[in-house]
User: Fold these one by one.
Assistant:
Number 1:
Amino acid sequence: MTGIVYSNDLISPSIYKMGIQLGDTAESIQAGQFAHVRCGQSYDPLLRRPISVCQIDAENGIIYITYQVKGKGTRWLAEQAIGSKLDILCPLGNSFEAVMPADINEIWLVGGGIGVFPLQLLAQQYKDKADIVSILGFRSDEFKPLWQPFEQYSKRVIIATEDGSYGYEGLVTDELILALRAHKPQIIAGCGPSKMLKSLACIAEQYDVPCVVSLEERMGCGIGACLVCNCKIKSDDEWHYRRVCTDGPVFWSHEVSFDE
Amino acid sequence: MTGIVYSNDLISPSIYKMGIQLGDTAESIQAGQFAHVRCGQSYDPLLRRPISVCQIDAENGIIYITYQVKGKGTRWLAEQAIGSKLDILCPLGNSFEAVMPADINEIWLVGGGIGVFPLQLLAQQYKDKADIVSILGFRSDEFKPLWQPFEQYSKRVIIATEDGSYGYEGLVTDELILALRAHKPQIIAGCGPSKMLKSLACIAEQYDVPCVVSLEERMGCGIGACLVCNCKIKSDDEWHYRRVCTDGPVFWSHEVSFDE
Amino acid sequence: MNEINMCVDICGVKLKNPVIAASGTFAFGREYSRYLDLNRLGGISVKGLTLYPREGNPPPRIAETAAGILNSVGLQNPGVDAFISNELPYLKQFDTVVIANLAGNSRDEYCVAADKLDKADIDMLELNISCPNVKEGGLSFGATPESAYDITKQVRNYCHHPLVVKLSPNVGNIKDVASAAQNAGADALSLINTLLGMAIDPHTRKPILGNITGGLSGPAIKPVALYMVWQAAQTVDIPIIGMGGIMNGNDAIEFMLAGAVAVQVGTANLVEPMATVRIIDDIERYMLDNGLKTIKDITGGLIC
Amino acid sequence: MNEINMCVDICGVKLKNPVIAASGTFAFGREYSRYLDLNRLGGISVKGLTLYPREGNPPPRIAETAAGILNSVGLQNPGVDAFISNELPYLKQFDTVVIANLAGNSRDEYCVAADKLDKADIDMLELNISCPNVKEGGLSFGATPESAYDITKQVRNYCHHPLVVKLSPNVGNIKDVASAAQNAGADALSLINTLLGMAIDPHTRKPILGNITGGLSGPAIKPVALYMVWQAAQTVDIPIIGMGGIMNGNDAIEFMLAGAVAVQVGTANLVEPMATVRIIDDIERYMLDNGLKTIKDITGGLIC
Ligand SMILES: Cc1cc2nc3c(=O)[nH]c(=O)nc-3n(C[C@H](O)[C@H](O)[C@H](O)COP(=O)(O)OP(=O)(O)OC[C@H]3O[C@@H](n4cnc5c(N)ncnc54)[C@H](O)[C@@H]3O)c2cc1C
Ligand SMILES: Cc1cc2nc3c(=O)[nH]c(=O)nc-3n(C[C@H](O)[C@H](O)[C@H](O)COP(=O)(O)OP(=O)(O)OC[C@H]3O[C@@H](n4cnc5c(N)ncnc54)[C@H](O)[C@@H]3O)c2cc1C
Ligand SMILES: Cc1cc2nc3c(=O)[nH]c(=O)nc-3n(C[C@H](O)[C@H](O)[C@H](O)COP(=O)(O)O)c2cc1C
Ligand SMILES: Cc1cc2nc3c(=O)[nH]c(=O)nc-3n(C[C@H](O)[C@H](O)[C@H](O)COP(=O)(O)O)c2cc1C
Ligand code: FES
Ligand code: FES
């Protein structure tokens, strides 16, 4: 499908937020789902890039993605002017809603770095149904624009920065433990680097709180056909490879095998 | 060297004229020389594209190229906005001046289609030294903006169009023969498709008029090192491969072996 | 009349057009049915099947390279039995040719699986002796003319459907392997499978793929694929199905000019789910523009 | 101290850094001296030389492909004698290692030319048994372990300088050819030369190259080259010079991590005349950033 670039702004060091006009599709998207974006007509870069939808303006048919410029694909994205056409497959993936129980009224969002984007849409979509606490970690306060959107949707926002330049100094998981000692929420939803997710899964198990996580893996098709995006999912004593693009990206944290 | 796009306009069907700020280099360029332009940072397209310099604004340090959008490289060029940076090697190649005798005071320019661009700069640079007659062929009158620049520099401009929509209907070489029957100029300078150049070389030989031509060949380095751009050049009974990028692109027509 | 006939006949099997989805990039068709009408395809070569189910290799399984991708899926598949009971009936609903792509670890495994598939309702068998992503088997069968001859001969005994042998480009001389497969009884050849390759992350100093090495596909390999198809076409008399980096109609035509009667489209599906259908349309337009009436007017038409 | 030492020693020849301009893309250095200081280079491998002058193949000799180029130059060169009298003295003015790249049509031709070069003031001989663009000779010598062994052994007799054998990727198993060259007395290996390939213009229905086929180089082939360098490095004990699609410092580092002590840069020179110097600077910055003191800290450092 063709999207039209509606806005494309640098909001933090090497992080851009882009609005894309997608029409009626916009309102059908659930948090955790992603857009698979072709970055130009050239064969270099060749593959689409998966980017989470982080905000929806359903009324105007606009979705927002926030992306860090890392390599060829995201660099190309950053160069696109307002009005440019984007070749997009969207929405792809299962979504948090598809995995979580239906009756959620209290949810803690635990995210690190660029892993906060799918949680942002989750916050937007659950703000009226559930009490939201956002516990987010960043390198420094330069990334303030990444946590600001959470403030309007959350009962409470706890920020940890690695350099202590804002909020608590340290890891987001440390703050989570402190908070869990005081109260156990109905469910935790996490997204971030796989090391962080691994700790999160351990903590959730230890405190016996249900936890869903959104994973990232290198992708090809994004639609479930090429089997390159797999992660190890345990069920009983067995494990199987499951596709992050269609079986996920959201899984129960206790099912994910993080050992690789 | 880095050039800055100064202008980039569609002037005829799929033909763009681009001004590029090159600073002091601009005034040193001779007609027949070309710019070797990198079309983006991607590896697809990978090679630079050779494009003749067709006009110079020495005062402002601006060179002009006119190019037809054919494939990936020229399509990329057409998308460049004013102010964009271009990675350019320029000037490359020998030039008409380097091949022709020093005392030229009468010159006929014979060009076809996009082959007229190096001749345009030749006209600009010889307008005060020599009487210029331009005999140019195009597909139709849609390409009028390609011959208009010749009008201010030439004593006479003869246009042939394949569909007869302007000037004479037919081939530029037919018009050349008619003109040669009336008068033989001191020298002919030609550029265009190789079929046209082959006829031109025959005609020049037949009428015994010295003739220089500017050739095109697929290029790699453009600076004489990779030996991929060769053409067959005769000298006495022998022939040798010569590099179009550095030994040319301008050669005496009687030396070129057009048989391939 | 401007009637264009895009049909091709490969050993008695009629394809409505020469465009086949390549094995491993199209799964069993289901995922693509959301994006295109499977009835439009000349054929579908399904994900490589093995006798028993396989989980495949550890992630990451894909690395992007310049104009190409490396994959190290390693034949993750549900096994031949599950294919026959769960996937084949789905595919047979559509009016397109179903090609079963078969790989194995041993001669016996190939033969038992070939026998099962042969008794099922497939249209052709594609013998994959060129998968670079499994330790034993796969590529090792396709690496020399002798081993290619041997495995083709064995499987031939169990296969009464047209037998397509899929060749590896990781060989010294493609002509020898092509001849060997033909001599062993192959009804057709398909080529190329992926080129062995590798990618390294200079920062972590580790290979990008979990399996260290992988198979290179996509536009990057097109010149190599085209060369090998051209070489094979000059060597054998049986039909050739060409592939390797086909992204658009012009690419497909180049392979047919070089001697292919049909083409497979792989990596392009990962980039653009509608790629196969767009390529069919492109070929039709090329035929119209050039006044060609049948695919025979293209195949082998290279002038040199 | 932050002293970085970029020197590498290849069989007793000292290169000030591991970056060598690849044969056929750098001519005899003259053209590049306008763009960069030749003294900065680790070495220069000159255009492939033959005993007698050669005109090379008919044009067109280059076709751009996705992230790559096909070339069919066909060893156009002035011959060994003219090289020694006209080009070598020019190159010897610079403080860089001069590598004579040698090709031939026959064993005798290789040997006579090697003898002439050996007596001249070169620093190393690179035996090109992998040129895909000449009918006899070239590639055919590098196609099998046996023929590679034989020609290396022959030339070894005439070569008292370090002998680098340049391998072809158009083989079934690079390990076998690498071993053969080592066993025959090669002091070092360089790889890869170009992959055989082809490009067709669908409109004219003709091959784009005058010689129909050509050799593929550039970023497109990097994954294949990296794989082969890694394979060779695990097989032989002699130094390996890696190449194939190196465009920047990271690419060079990947080859060194895979086991190369030095790298050659080819196609990149055609795209950007300053490529070699930029790559040297990139490697230096990588070493600084990662606290590495010598190239040995990179070579073979792949973690897997
Ligand atoms: C489901 C999902 C959602 C994501 N959401 C976001 C988001 O909202 N914002 C954001 O900044 N990033 C997100 N990412 C990561 C993003 O896809 C990569 O940063 C991006 O693909 C890098 O592309 P590049 O061209 O900049 O980098 P390159 O290094 O040039 O990429 C090379 C290849 O590796 C792949 N790749 C590299 N890093 C990653 C990664 N972390 N995950 C998956 N593939 C990778 C690329 O897709 C490409 O195929 C998400 C990833 C997934 C799987
Ligand atoms: C000395 C010289 C001067 C030129 N001056 C002009 C000019 O002033 N205006 C203009 O429109 N064109 C000019 N050309 C032709 C121009 O270089 C090609 O049209 C252009 O390279 C096509 O690139 P592309 O990416 O659009 O096409 P693609 O088809 O994508 O190109 C593929 C490859 O083929 C090469 N190629 C394709 N056609 C030609 C050709 N005719 N000559 C050389 N290489 C070719 C490209 O450079 C590239 O390497 C000149 C060519 C030469 C050699
Ligand atoms: C992700 C992926 C999985 C593949 N799996 C198989 C397979 O199971 N069996 C097979 O014969 N080929 C497999 N291939 C190879 C393709 O069928 C095809 O031969 C190759 O990719 C070259 O074509 P392309 O460049 O169009 O992709 C796979 C390719 C890719 C990219
Ligand atoms: C135009 C051109 C000419 C070449 N000529 C030679 C040659 O004469 N001798 C040789 O050994 N290799 C030759 N090569 C191969 C390169 O030296 C190198 O092995 C190959 O191009 C891969 O490296 P690259 O991808 O960095 O170009 C040539 C390559 C190109 C592109
Ligand atoms: S990316 Fe293809 S199956 Fe997930
Ligand atoms: S383009 Fe390299 S020598 Fe002319």
Note: The radius of gyration of chain B is 18 Å.
Number 2:
Amino acid sequence: MNSRVRLFGSLVEIVGKSELNVSGCSDTQEVKEKLASEFPQLRKCEFLISVDRKLVKNNQRLEPGNEIAFLPPFAGG
Amino acid sequence: MNSRVRLFGSLVEIVGKSELNVSGCSDTQEVKEKLASEFPQLRKCEFLISVDRKLVKNNQRLEPGNEIAFLPPFAGG
Amino acid sequence: MKERKPHKVFLTGPITPQFIADSIAKHSIKTTIGAHDIFLGQVRRDVIENKAVHAIEYSAYEEMAEEKFHELREAAFAKFQLTCMHIYHSKGKVKAGEICLFVFVSSKHRSSAFEACRWIVEEIKNNVPIWGKEIFEDETYVWKENS
Amino acid sequence: MKERKPHKVFLTGPITPQFIADSIAKHSIKTTIGAHDIFLGQVRRDVIENKAVHAIEYSAYEEMAEEKFHELREAAFAKFQLTCMHIYHSKGKVKAGEICLFVFVSSKHRSSAFEACRWIVEEIKNNVPIWGKEIFEDETYVWKENS
């Protein structure tokens, strides 16, 4: 399965783009691991993961078409 | 001793003016009694008394030149 | 301690949105400010015994009120970490829907602004000698009581 | 329950005093309102490692942020006795001294407006996916962290 991953804030700079596709991941933990192995600096970053604009508590199974996002600490206001 | 008494809010209507002079009073309690006997409706009114723009807690001796005021409940804002 | 010039609190008639905008704009040069809290009191068209309030006419013991505002200002600066504070209160007639009180507090961080603004509004309501006549359409009135 | 139309929260660039004045003015027809509380976030010229912040450039996960703002709005109306609430947040560049957040809460009595406004600001800071780059004069930057 192909999953679309969006990146925000400082994470865009680490990955070099604001969006990418990962394949062969069945849950968010796998997506995180896959990207962390490709971009080791991600391991030092604090971020949350959302699926379809809802924050994921621990790990979440992915369905086709899910929009995954990596969200560094919020800084609005 | 002559004392100047200022009235505010609803008390102006009861007394019919916003300022008057009372004579022969040596403290705020006497001023209050004197005006209440002249304007009995004052007895039904809730108000505080100030001397020289400071609220009087219980009773206060008057000095020549003091400015006394009768202040109904505040309603600013 | 820096001496803060007491400024004139009472404005005749309603406080306009434009006046508020101008006050906000003046703070753009104060770049240590991170948070503003603004309280606005607006005259309600309350219905009392089947008659709707058309306006409130404010009066005050102005000399005492200005002293109280000054004390309140000094106390607020002592109690909270503030950069700026401004208070404006109407005197005279303010119609329903118009603004009669403008409290403007600025600080580096939001908690001081929030806490100070609320404290100041309560102090004004409780301790400043201001009165209001609630005037109905037919020009009868009642004296406003604070809740 | 009355359906409340979600409105656009993000504005490009700073929120101007004139925009705030216009928002205030629109409330004069709502004559059940007695109290407005307005929170404004202003960009500070913080000094970080000897360099002063010149501007913050805001970005957001807009689709998620708009959903969060909508949830927050519904929760605020359920939790507090409010007549109106409006939230505006900047995206893009906002210079030091300019306004990046405008929360505007109106109610019959002051306590609801004060409590709701503060609650909303905390919720925005903690739960809405917005980020800011603090840009220095020399165009270097750091990512803003909320305190």
Note: The mean pLDDT of chain B is 96.
